[in-house]
């Protein structure tokens, strides 16, 4: 967006003359968007998200052994299924890295292909997580059954919602890339989504270790 500055000559009384023929106008071809402003703002958002997940991890650390005479993690968790789900998310992080490499080479088609693969792996992750939730609810392990299950569903479900929003963001960005190509704004958006996606991978590694692996060690 261009900034417009108008300079007008002053009259005898010192007030500017309106509508004069000698009115001077010039333009500064600078953007309102500060350099690296988006990335700084997005880092601040990620820090706030870190605080949210830190609180949820702390709550689960306190309530993770409060079973209320109900099932524990050792009774409920299917580690092979969770390991498969984890591999889906970690692979999606790798494929997003390939998309960023294609973006740096200014190859739109390659970027779109790797983004599509990333979205499919993310969708598989969310699908397996929904299957796990439905299975637990079918077994009677509902969130209101115990404090352990309440903290489990809240922490894992919050992460799953983040992945879902990430997929929606990815699909929207693919439409933008298809319409406008690899312009500077789209490259900036790809960088922001890359930070978000890798952040979710790091959080999930913590969930897998702290919730699932330690949950079966009772």
From TrEMBL:
Matches recorded under CDD domains: Ubiquinol_oxidase_III (cd02863)
SUPFAM superfamilies found in the cross-reference section: Cytochrome c oxidase subunit III-like
Keyword Transport: yes
GO CC term (a single one): plasma membrane
Protein name as annotated: Cytochrome bo(3) ubiquinol oxidase subunit 3
Gene3D superfamilies: Cytochrome c oxidase, subunit III, four-helix bundle
Localisation: Cell membrane
Keywords assigned by UniProt, alphabetized: Cell membrane, Electron transport, Membrane, Oxidoreductase, Transmembrane, Transmembrane helix, Transport
Organism: Cupriavidus gilardii
GO molecular function annotation: cytochrome bo3 ubiquinol oxidase activity; cytochrome-c oxidase activity
Gene name for this UniProt entry: cyoC
Record-level GO BP terms: aerobic electron transport chain
């Amino acid at each position: 967006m261009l900034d417009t500055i108008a300079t007008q000559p002053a009259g005898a009384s010192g007030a500017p003359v309106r509508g004069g023929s000698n009115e001077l106008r010039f333009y500064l071809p600078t953007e309102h968007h500060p350099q690296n402003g988006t990335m700084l703002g997005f880092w601040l958002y990620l820090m706030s998200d870190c605080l949210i997940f830190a609180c949820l991890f702390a709550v689960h650390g306190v309530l993770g052994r409060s079973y209320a005479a109900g099932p524990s993690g050792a009774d409920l968790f299917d580690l092979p299924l969770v390991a498969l789900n984890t591999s889906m998310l970690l692979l999606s992080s790798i494929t997003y890295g390939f998309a960023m490499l294609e973006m740096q080479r200014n190859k739109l088609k390659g970027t779109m292909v790797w983004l599509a693969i990333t979205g499919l792996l993310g969708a598989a992750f969310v699908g397996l997580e929904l299957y796990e939730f439905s299975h637990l609810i079918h077994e009677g392990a509902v969130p209101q059954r115990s404090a352990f299950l309440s903290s489990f569903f809240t922490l894992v479900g919050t992460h799953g919602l983040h992945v879902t929003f990430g997929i929606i963001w990815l699909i929207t960005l693919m439409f933008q890339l298809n319409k406008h190509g690899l312009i500077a704004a789209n490259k900036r958006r790809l960088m922001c989504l890359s930070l978000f996606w890798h952040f979710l991978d790091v959080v999930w590694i913590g969930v897998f270790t702290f919730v699932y692996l330690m949950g079966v060690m009772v």
